[in-house]
Request: fold
Amino acid sequence: MYVYEPADDSWMLANELKKRKCRRFLDMGCGSGVQANSIGRADEIVCADVNPDAVETAKNNVKTGNARFVVSNLFDNITGRFDLIAFNTPYLDDADPRDMAWTHIQNGEDVIEKFILQAKNHITKDGKILLLISDRNYDGYKLFAMGQGYNWKIIAEKPLFFETLYVVELSVQ
Reply:
């Protein structure tokens, strides 16, 4: 399987994470481990990815000793609640070349919507979720998240020549 190479979206989310401190941090879709290396401070870090090759890559790249690594399809193998969850989503459309690292429709399900549904069961009362998405179906995801009881706040935006990227902060209402 392909391990996502850090790009504009990775660094955009990483810049926001540098400002954050928490007790428990979940790097969902950890890929190469960029987000786990970027968190300002966390007492415990969990790096999760559906791709076993990505989990191995993150193990080799994450420089902190307080990290655990889990192969998990979103929250399937994740326990407990987190103060902060970051997810650089696979936000591209379902078109060739199709890969789990960047395509949001997988096995007929929208991974971003599935994440939004499951995440509130893994976030602490005052916890935050940082979600990296593009302008593709932005309004749809915003309405979906708000319908699930989340507050939606854009904390970073980067226009590129073919799309606009957003880091959105979600919190439970």
User: Anything to note?
Assistant: The CA atoms of residues 31 and 54 lie 5 Å apart. The chain is about 25% helix and 35% strand. Strands lie at 21-28, 41-49, 67-71, 82-88, 105-106, 109-110, 123-134, 150-159, 164-172.
